[in-house]
Each structure stands twice: as C-alpha cells, then as structure tokens.
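Following up on my earlier thread - several people asked me to post the actual chain instead of describing it. Fair enough. Here it is, all 80 residues.
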Amino acid sequence: MSGRMKNTDAIATGEDTVKVRVDSQRCQGHTLCSIIAPEVFEPSEIDGHATVIREDVPPELRAKVAEAVNTCPERAISTF
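Reply from S.P.:
Thanks for posting it. Predicted structure:
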C-alpha cells in the first residue's frame, strides 16, 4: 500500500479536527453526499455539483461524512 492516506483516514484515526473538501474537478453532481449529509454538503441548483458548507466536521457528523466519502462514485470527497 502506498503512503497516501485514504479518503476517510482522518475520521478513522479519531483526529481531533477533521475537515472535508470536495474536488470540483472530480465531482459530477450525483448529489449523494448532500442526501447523506445535508448539514455538510449542498448541491448546486444548476448542475448538482457539491459545495462544502461546513468544512470543520463535528464529531456527531463524522459518520455521515465518512458514508458520503465512501458513497461518492467519483471519489471526489476527502477528509483531512
């Protein structure tokens, strides 16, 4: 395995501060993340591309964000 972190490593390792981002070049607007975690992601009304509306992920939303990361078909979401 390479030294690169998986998209959910920050959540899995129990980091105190977890941030989330969406790679706008990879996002294709499937909107799954905003369905799973509407407190964190918002889809564009024009094309569905996700925008992070809450970069710092509180502990109570980390499971939802991890699910969004793992569900994204384009692997456009990552935590750090």
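Residues 62-71 form the longest helix (10 residues). That should answer part of your original question.
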